[in-house]
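FW: tagging you since you asked about this chain on Friday. Here's the raw sequence from the shared folder, copied in full. Didn't touch anything.
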Amino acid sequence: MCGRYYRRADKQRIAEAFRLGQLPADFVLPPDFNVAPTTMQPVIRQSRDTGARELVMMRWGLVPNELTAEVHNRMPVILHDRDYDRWLDRGERERPPVDLLRPYEADAMLATACNPTVGNPRNNGPEMLNSA
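HL: got it, structure written out here
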């Protein structure tokens, strides 16, 4: 169950949060209650052609590291709303703002037990949010 999360925001809500404008009507983004590595997930990036922000589907996952131990601690970067512009709006040659790569405040997160069947990515529904 390593590296799982869920996404329930709809495409227009994501577009508004990241100031993407109106998305194409045929862009489908259903909720995903069991996001597993290797699945296609929405990513906001800066277009190389136009410089505008765009929402694209990309393969989500972690880069393997031969030095990773059997048991490991890792935390994805979670940005505050106030940091979105700084992370996304930078020149191609400009270095990423590495000072934003810091642990998110623990008291701003909520950990809850999930359904044990979450270990199988084919199980994907709102019942994954309930412990069984």
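FW: Residues 5-129 form one domain.
HL: agreed, and Strands lie at 5-7, 32-35, 40-46, 53-59.
FW: great, closing this out.
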